[in-house]
Design a protein that fits this description.
Layout (H helix, E strand, L loop, with lengths): L2 E2 L2 H5 L18 E3 L9 E5 L1 H7 L3 H4 L2 H8 L10 E3 L2 E4 L2 E5 L5 E8 L5 E7 L16 H16 L6 E14 L8 E12 L5 H9 L3 H15 L7 H26 L1 E2 L21 E2 L24 H17 L9 H23 L8 H14 L4 H8 L19 H6 L1 H18 L3 H11 L7 H12 L4 H10 L34
Bound molecules: adenosine monophosphate and magnesium ion (MG).
The site of magnesium ion (MG) has 3 residues, from loops.
Length: 517
């Protein structure tokens, strides 16, 4: 039995209007809202690690009461349901109020170790923040969120988590490519879990509205609940807190660049105050290395959120948070130090991480150029990012033959064209490795700890989705199982480490995704 202690609704002002209709919510941080029941819920998948962290045993999770709670059909003792109010900058422009349009909180669970977790159902029906949308989620996007958030956790990357995936037994209508062809799709609900789902946009909205009282309450609450370790006088605490957010966000960006993750929609409402990966929408994983790649079809023109721009965008988003917090401090310049820390932390973590990815003991002068040349080669020769870095560890610095990298090429003509360039680069890489004068074992262990063998490649998740839409959820379990140990070669599971097959190159869901979910 989970213990709930719902601080957010207890300590922050709530909406006095309890009717569930779309509206601007002024002067309140949250609105009470009841999930809309679904016809025939079925538990398709769950995370045993997340259940364990919460202190739930599997039998409990499979009980009728839990199924009801995870599908929005009933509440367990201590649960309270609400949606929170936030705004955000979308694609560079201020979007005003957004809010939890299809996420409904179940409350804050506290486990045996005293750790606090917010639980929320994504796709549980309309809220006052749903605007014209239905508050629901389709199975394909729910599978994507379920698998990727757990995979991120196993990769050691800060993320919100997923406890469960429930099929609702109801249809949801979506126009997948916004081209006037709506179709019915199976609906689903993911129960997401995080110590805090508070976003940059939670602070931006009251700041934009000039609601200093609410902004202060939100800041005080977040500091007290989510950052209790930060001390000092009020202004110092704000500055230190912002600096901490900058540091965490910088580290997160390095993680994403390390594994080839493209979030796809880095709007400020999708930025976590804890530096977690949050809101899995049209995200994607780099197959053939391309810094300009984005899976999000809505962003295909501007490529604002493409792979290479993510760190820069994170910084831009932090500046918007600083603008918001700056409305309630005497000297908004105090946040400059945090922004400087973002750059310094990013550079430092990036160098440490990419030194490890390349197998170097540390970052030296000249390594930046070697890495730049690798990126250029990977891009022009269409080489798979994950396979390249993983296989690089197998090469002998004494005689770096390119053969083990053969499987990472997508195009034979390009492979031939760039064979000489690759051989030359490998010679210089090998020379650099030899300069460290380390044992192969040590170097390989360091490389294999940061270069995953298995990532939830877009096509792998799509295969699991295709099967689940035919009524067979076992693909979800198989994929998640492999992704539990992403850095360990798993005999018999080679299929999951393979580069994207030709059929998936331009298939929707594998390389292109819309925001429709
Ligand atoms: P996103 O781009 O997914 O981060 O969503 C932006 C905003 O749209 C958030 O306020 C979401 O809650 C809202 N939203 C997205 N999809 C839906 C939906 N199907 N029903 C209601 N609100 C939605
Ligand atoms: Mg969002």
């Amino acid at each position: 039995m989970l213990h709930f202690d719902n601080r957010l609704v207890r300590e922050l002002p709530g909406d006095t209007d309890s009717r569930n209709h779309p509206r601007p919510v002024i002067g309140a941080a949250w609105s009470p809202v009841t999930p809309t029941p679904v016809a025939a819920p079925r538990l398709l998948a769950w995370s045993r690690e997340m259940a364990e962290t919460l202190g739930l045993d599997e039998r409990e999770l499979h009980s009728a009461d839990w199924l009801a709670a995870l599908s929005g059909n009933g509440l367990l003792p201590g649960m309270e349901t609400y949606a929170t109010c936030y705004g955000g900058h979308q694609f560079g422009s201020w979007a005003d109020q957004l809010g939890d349009g299809r996420a409904i909180f179940l409350g804050e669970a506290v486990n045996h170790a005293g750790q606090r977790f917010e639980l929320q159902l994504k796709g549980a029906g309309r809220t006052p923040y749903s605007r014209r949308a239905d508050g629901r989620a389709v199975l394909r996007s729910s599978i994507r969120e379920f698998i990727c958030s757990e995979a991120m956790h196993h990769l050691g990357i800060p993320t919100t988590r997923a406890l469960s995936l429930v099929a609702t037994g109801e249809a949801v209508e979506r126009d997948m490519f916004y081209d006037g062809h709506p179709a019915d799709e199976p609906g689903a609900i993911v129960c997401r879990v995080a110590p805090s789902f508070i976003r940059f946009g939670h602070f931006e909205l009251p700041a934009a509205r000039g609601d200093e009282a609410l902004l202060r309450q939100l800041v005080d609450f977040t500091l007290a609940r989510d950052f209790p370790e930060i001390g000092g006088d009020p202004e110092q605490r704000m500055a230190r807190w912002f600096e901490e957010i900058c540091v965490r966000t910088a580290r997160l960006m390095v993680h994403w660049m390390r594994v080839g993750f493209v979030h796809g929609v880095m709007n400020t409402d999708n930025m976590s105050i804890l530096g977690l990966t949050i809101d899995y929408g049209p995200y994607g994983w780099i197959d053939n290395f391309d810094p300009a790649w984005t899976p999000n079809t809505t962003d295909a023109q501007g490529r604002r959120y493409c792979f290479a721009r993510q760190p820069m965008i994170a910084r831009w988003n932090l500046e918007r948070l600083a603008d918001a917090l700056g409305t309630i401090v005497p000297d908004p310049e105090v946040f400059g130090a945090g922004l400087d820390r973002f750059n310094a932390t990013y550079t430092q973590a990036f160098q440490r991480t990419f030194a490890a990815k390349l197998g170097f003991a540390g970052w030296r002068d000249g390594d930046a150029q070697l890495l730049e040349e690798a990126f250029d080669l990977l891009n022009r020769a269409e080489i798979d990012m994950t396979l390249f870095f993983r296989r690089l560890a197998d090469l002998s610095p004494g005689a770096p033959a390119a053969e083990p990298l053969g499987a990472a090429f997508y195009d034979t003509a390009r492979q031939v064209e760039h064979a000489e360039g690759l051989a030359a680069w490998l010679q210089r890489w090998a020379e650099r490795v030899r300069a460290d004068n380390e044992s192969d074992t040590l170097r390989q262990a360091r490389m294999n700890a940061v270069n995953p063998c298995y990532v939830p490649r877009n096509y792998l998740t799509q295969e699991a989705i295709d099967r689940a839409e035919q009524g067979n959820a076992s693909g979800i379990h198989e994929l998640l199982d492999v992704l539990r140990h992403p850095y360990r070669e798993q005999p018999g599971k080679e299929h999951f480490a393979a580069k994207r097959p030709a059929w998936a190159r331009n298939r929707p869901g594998c390389s292109m995704l819309s925001c429709s979910s």
